[in-house]
């Protein structure tokens, strides 16, 4: 079996960050988002992974991920020439699969308990396809499985107006080579109204043509950090439930630490209070500040005279002397935020297109 992980997509819901950064590269709990699906694939023992990318992104993706050896894997990079939907992502990988079974794991989804149970179920039952499902209060935004009275899967509908239950499909799919028959012949799958090949359609096609497609509920927590608020919530969940404390730098005697805290190498923490769960990268300088809980701070950041909690600071961020608490923020790399005391009754802003500012 091989794995497919996409790195494409426009990431419009995460603009303005995604004007200059691939969404899959943005960190959650100080780890690039795409690292989570890679780790899930490595955990089940799959060794060969196809990483798909869009035009103009190959160098950036390769620079971040390399050849896969970091995880004991072997990466092959596959171009998706046009953003034609998730089913097309799989379609462009057909030649590299060489007839093998595959798992398609979205690069921007996190399955907090891994995918081992789903993998074992697929290997045991040997269906032609397997889709996972989770209970979701807004399943109308996703693909929804429909069942007959006996509980057998009938079809999967993308973003239905009136779903009959609260279950939806998260971003994990298994199939064999019969999946690719759906793109051939007179009754092949067609693009949706938005011009994309939707991932539910090939599985519905397989069901209609007598192939065995199963569905299994995923029991762990599924995180889909597609929007700003979801990103903050996902970061909080991972820090709260998955963080193991580790302190690799000295903290001065005037500082206090409470709860689970990770501090990287080369950090300097003085006259500050760190309230976990929180994670701090390497070479971070923090002074006269109250940090946490639920905050991820990237490497090489400088924080002075601030109160910051529940958010994400990417690398090389400077935040100095902000009098009001900074809560629920996602701050892009190399940003500089400072109270310079020049404007007593006004605020000076340098804001990019489609930014969000709350004062």
TrEMBL record:
Q: Which UniProt keywords apply?
A: Transferase
Q: Does the keyword Transferase apply?
A: yes
Chain ranges of the Nucleotidyl transferase domain? 2-238
Q: Any keyword Glycoprotein? A: no
One MF annotation (Gene Ontology) recorded for this entry: transferase activity
Instruction: Give the matching InterPro entries.
Output: G1P_thy_trans_l, NTP_transferase_dom, Nucleotide-diphossugar_trans
Which SUPFAM superfamilies does this UniProt record tie to the protein? Nucleotide-diphospho-sugar transferases (SSF53448)
What PANTHER family does the annotation carry? GLUCOSE-1-PHOSPHATE THYMIDYLTRANSFERASE, THYMIDYLYLTRANSFERASE
Q: What is this protein called?
A: Glucose-1-phosphate thymidylyltransferase
Species of origin reads: Candidatus Woesebacteria bacterium RIFCSPLOWO2_01_FULL_39_21
């Amino acid at each position: 079996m091989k794995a497919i992980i996409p790195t494409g997509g426009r990431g419009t819901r995460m603009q303005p960050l995604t004007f200059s950064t691939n969404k899959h590269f943005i960190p959650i709990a100080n780890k690039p988002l795409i690292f989570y699906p890679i780790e899930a694939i490595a955990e089940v023992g799959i060794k060969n992974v196809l990483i798909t990318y869009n035009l103009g992104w190959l160098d950036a993706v390769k620079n971040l991920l390399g050849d896969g050896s970091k995880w004991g894997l072997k990466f092959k990079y596959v171009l998706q020439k046009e953003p034609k939907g998730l089913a097309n992502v799989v379609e462009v990988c057909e030649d590299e699969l060489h007839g093998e079974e595959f798992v398609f794991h979205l690069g921007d989804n996190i399955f907090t308990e891994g995918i081992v149970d789903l993998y074992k179920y697929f290997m045991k039952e040997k269906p032609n396809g397997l889709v996972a499902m989770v209970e979701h209060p807004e399943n109308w935004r996703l693909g929804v499985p429909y069942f007959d009275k006996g509980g057998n899967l009938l079809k999967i509908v993308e973003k239905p107006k009136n779903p009959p239950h609260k279950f939806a499909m998260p971003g994990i799919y298994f199939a064999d080579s019969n999946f690719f028959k759906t793109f051939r012949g007179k009754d092949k799958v067609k693009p949706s109204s938005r011009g994309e090949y939707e991932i539910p359609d090939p599985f519905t096609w397989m069901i209609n043509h007598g192939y065995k497609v199963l569905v299994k509920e995923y029991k762990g927590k599924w995180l889909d950090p597609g929007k700003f608020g979801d990103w903050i919530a996902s970061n909080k969940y991972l820090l709260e439930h998955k963080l193991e404390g580790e302190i690799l730098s000295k903290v001065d005697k005037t500082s206090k630490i409470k709860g689970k805290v990770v501090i990287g190498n080369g950090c300097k923490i003085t006259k500050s209070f760190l309230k976990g769960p929180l994670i701090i990268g390497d070479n971070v300088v923090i002074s006269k500040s109250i940090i946490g809980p639920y905050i991820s701070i990237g490497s090489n950041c400088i924080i002075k005279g601030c109160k910051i909690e529940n958010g994400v600071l990417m690398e090389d961020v400077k935040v100095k002397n902000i009098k009001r608490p900074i809560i629920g923020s996602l701050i892009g790399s190399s940003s500089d935020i400072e109270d310079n005391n020049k404007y007593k009754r006004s605020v000076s802003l340098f804001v990019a297109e489609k930014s969000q500012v709350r004062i």
